[in-house]
Amino acid sequence: MMLKRSVLVLFSLLGIEGCNFHTGPISESLNPESMDLKLLVCKVRSSIFIDSNQDAKLSIGDRITYVFDVSKDGACEQPKSTFYGVEEIVMSHPLGDDQKQAFVTRFQGTFRLNEGNLQVRGLSDLHLSIDEWKGIEESGEVDLAIANIFPLRHKLSVVGQGGSYTGHIGTAAVSPGDPAVVEVSLFRQFKLD
């Protein structure tokens, strides 16, 4: 009886595996599809300070939310995409010349592109002049430039969300400038049938 049951389980498992065979070339399953994108962060549409600890200054635990105009085709004159994001201050330190305040942040957000969405997250930096920093005293809209938000080159992790990017993961290298450049490298994590 036990032998019959074992044989039945074995053939059931073989039957299930047989239904799941790969019909494409073997190299396709070993080398997942990859994509490279170059996105331009053209301008800051809005930035809002949230004074989470109510201390009337930008400090650890506070957040800034952003909406950026983004271009995928290299033309910032009429950007067709958007980025929605938030960064939370996790560390603060003055820069060497004491004329700027630097913050390490936990940065995350979503690029909304025509082909689908890309979620990004990682550690980032925020640099403000002493006057800009002291001018942020209460929750509400703040005037920040791309150079404040992306002062240094850094990397973020990326997860595809919907459309052409479903099932893709990768990295994004953010380079400072006006516009800031985000070079995204994606590869297919799994295949959807």
Which key features would you list for this structure?
193 residues, alpha+beta, 4 helices, 9 strands
Write the layout of secondary structure elements.
Elements: H1 2-18, H2 26-30, E1 34-50, E2 63-71, E3 81-94, E4 100-113, E5 116-129, H3 130-135, E6 140-141, H4 146-149, E7 154-161, E8 168-175, E9 180-188
Antiparallel strand pairs: 1-2, 1-6, 1-9, 2-3, 3-4, 4-5, 5-7, 7-8, 8-9
Describe the structure.
- It is a single chain.
- This protein has 193 residues and is of the alpha+beta class.
- The protein has one domain (33-188): Allene oxide cyclase-like (AOC barrel-like, Beta Barrel).
- The chain has 4 helices and 9 strands; from the N terminus they run ααβββββαβαβββ.
- It has helices at 2-18, 26-30, 130-135, 146-149, and strands at residues 34-50, 63-71, 81-94, 100-113, 116-129, 140-141, 154-161, 168-175, 180-188.
- An 8-stranded antiparallel β-barrel has the order 1-2-3-4-5-7-8-9.
- Strand 8 (168-175) and strand 9 (180-188) form a beta hairpin.
- The longest helix has 17 residues, at 2-18.
- The chain is elongated and about 50 Å long.
- It starts with a helix and ends in a 5-residue tail after the last strand.
- Residues 6-32 have low confidence and may be disordered.
Give the structure's gist in a few sentences:
The protein has 193 residues and is an alpha+beta fold.
